[in-house]
Write a structure and sequence with these properties.
eight-stranded mixed β-sheet, 21 helices, single chain, 639 residues
Length: 639
């Protein structure tokens, strides 16, 4: 393994070399350039962060008074000297402040004075340094440099450095709160230049790969579109806090279940595998905590929840990350209807906490390139801005959700077969016919139409499209006329189509219900229709956000469902579940009727922060390793 040198990790250019020289010169003047601490004052009643100073009522009142005075002045006119003096006297009476932060801009020196802004990652505060009126502390002895050395040392500060200052507050002629610095302590050198001060980091890969740079750039940028990066993750924290508080207020107990398990159970997913050397056993990173939480219901925890990290060794997309956060909770004596009611109230509470009281959340459209924006029959146009209204949660069966979005496809089917689509789809080989028909329409036929329109620069008529679709349907009916599907095969075709095309058409909060039992191995069957599971999935803005059901508590039936899943594994389904003997043993002690749900925290935060990628709401998402320039040019196979 080749270990890179420090100079290979830190880019070498004029800026980094200058910063290193500044650090060496500072070291010669003040000694230790990375001191252990800086004590901030507490005039605000708490530790004086810049934000706390600005929010402190006596300070905020003075700033507001000066703003009122300035609002009445003509352009270029200064506030009356006596008014400014009175306000500054109020600030000086508060005593000296000791604040610290990062230099938000390069120091601005004007003759014998300098202005610069400090940032605490949230707010900014201007500091004013005047030659002969402030001194730099030596970090080794706490002695002061003389005025000339202090001014020289100030000139060695760079954009992004951390400093601490002591002085008194005052208001400038422009109405800006500032600190008149009397003492300055150097705290840390930024060896790399700061991001663009106007816009921050614009490259999404750098944002996600180097979140620390993104947080710095976002906090220091003058212009913001939407939330800053910090605000996104503060919103995430509010959502999690709200969910936890709501559950605990309703009697739920938070628990922790294993993250390394001997069996990958609780969901249909491909796991990560590792090996425990001392026990000499293979273990799996948790794909879901479900079966452990239900063991606790068996043991007497009637209301139980876990905010957990799950790991799935599957694909990465704008809504999938191998490591993600779920909230799972279970309630004894509740069924699927009760769980939908409870989940709706819970999510509304979290939305209001995140938005400051509103149930309406704006979602901006995504810009897409190419000919595909309006071409697809079923996929909604995601380029338009819209508002997600959490006031009402709709409930819709999966078949109805498909039927509502079929357009003239539905008219063709119901006219051709003289029966409703909802009935037709579950008969004979119709699910297979419909499956092939939709995939042909969305892929092969759409490509032909797009190519034809591109070459002729003319739009294909709707009459031609409908005629071709009808023709294809008749061909498929002939091709599949002798085929027969089992109920499970029909279910697989219908669910796969819903997942591929129709879930993305759901904008507003909607519980999709009436899932086939065959794809819901942990769910009770509906007492009204044994082929249907008492299960729901919540979709918002084209994404699954939650999944819940009435929990199967018959140990014999659960055993049979596991065996059926294992048979599917032998037929090549790597994500089918395996038999968990201990869970069957737990159920055999008796589990009360119960309902459970899993809510995707990352996706919920995406909705509430107007982010289009799950990577934007995870501080450190998984990405391919970055390659150094010499590796890129070596001609070797990468990644």
């Amino acid at each position: 393994m080749q270990i890179p040198q420090f100079t290979e990790i830190i880019e070498q250019n004029d800026q980094t070399l200058a910063r290193r020289e500044h650090l060496d010169e500072l070291r010669s003047l003040i000694g230790n350039v990375y001191p252990n601490k800086f004590d901030r004052s507490r005039i605000s009643g708490d530790e004086d962060t810049i934000t706390n100073i600005l929010d402190f009522a006596p300070v905020a009142d003075v700033v507001e008074e000066m703003a009122a005075v300035r609002s009445k002045l003509a352009p270029g006119e200064r506030p009356p000297a006596d008014t400014k003096d009175q306000l500054n006297a109020k600030l000086k009476d508060l005593g000296n402040v000791r604040v610290a932060g990062r230099l938000a801009v390069p120091p601005r020196v004007m003759g014998k004075a300098a202005f610069v802004h400090l940032s605490d990652g949230i707010s900014r505060l201007q500091i004013y340094c005047r030659k002969e009126e402030f001194a730099l502390l030596k970090n080794d002895s706490q002695d002061l440099l003389d005025p000339q050395e202090s001014w020289t040392a100030f000139g060695l500060l760079d954009h992004g450095d951390f400093i601490g200052v002591e002085g008194y507050l005052f208001i400038t002629n422009t109405g800006e709160l500032s600190v008149h610095v009397e003492k300055l302590k150097f705290l840390s050198k930024a060896m790399l230049p700061m991001p663009d001060k106007m816009h921050g980091i614009e490259d999404p890969e750098i944002k996600q790969r180097q979140r620390y740079v993104d947080l710095i750039g976002s906090s220091l940028a003058f212009e913001h579109e939407g939330l800053t990066t910090r605000q996104v993750f503060e919103t995430r924290a509010k959502v999690i806090s709200s969910l936890r508080s709501f559950l605990e207020d309703h009697g739920y107990i938070e628990v922790e279940t294993p993250m390394l398990t001997p069996k990958a159970t609780g969901a249909a997913a491909k796991p990560f595998r590792t090996h425990h050397n001392a026990l000499d056993i293979d273990l799996f990173a948790r794909i879901a905590p479900e079966l452990y939480l239900k063991r606790l219901v068996v043991g007497g925890f009637e209301k139980v929840y876990e905010l957990n990290r799950n790991f799935r060794n599957e694909g990465i997309s704008y809504k999938h990350n191998p490591e993600f956060t779920m909230l799972e909770f279970y309630c004894a004596y509740m069924n699927v209807e009760g769980m939908m009611d409870f989940a709706e109230t819970l999510i509304k509470c979290a939305v209001e906490r995140a938005t400051g009281g509103s149930l309406q959340v704006g979602v901006s459209g995504r810009q897409r390139k190419g000919l595909w924006v309006d071409q697809h029959f079923f996929r909604r146009d995601t380029t338009k801005d819209r508002v997600i209204d959490f006031t009402t949660f709709k409930r819709l069966s999966m078949t109805d959700a498909i039927s509502e979005n079929l357009g003239y496809f539905k008219e063709i089917i119901e006219k051709r077969f003289d029966q409703s689509f909802r009935v037709w789809i579950w008969q004979d080989a119709n699910a297979l016919i419909f499956n092939d028909w939709v995939w042909w329409s969305e892929d092969e036929f759409q490509s032909e139409v797009a190519q034809e329109e591109f070459e002729t620069e003319k739009k294909i008529s709707e009459e031609y499209v409908i005629a071709e679709i009808n023709k294809k349907l008749e061909n498929l009916i002939t091709d599949h006329s002798v085929k027969s599907l089992t109920e499970d095969e029909r279910a697989v075709h219908i669910v796969s189509l819903f997942d591929a095309f129709f879930e993305a058409t759901i904008d507003q909060p909607t519980f999709i219900v009436d899932y086939p039992k065959s794809i819901s191995p942990l769910s009770k069957a509906s007492p009204d229709d044994p082929s249907i599971a008492e299960r729901f999935e919540l979709f918002i803005n084209g994404m699954e956000v939650a999944n819940g059901f009435s929990e199967l508590n018959d140990p014999r039936e659960q055993y049979d469902r596991f065996i059926d899943q294992m048979e599917q594994r032998t037929r090549g389904d790597e994500e089918a579940m395996i038999l968990d003997e201990d869970y069957i043993r737990a159920l055999s002690y008796g589990m009360p009727p119960a309902a459970g749900i899993g809510i995707g925290i990352d996706r919920l935060v995406m909705l509430l922060t107007n982010k289009h990628s799950i990577r934007d709401v995870i501080l450190f998402p998984h990405m391919r390793p970055a390659r150094r320039e010499e590796e890129k040019g070596s001609g070797e196979e990468g990644e």
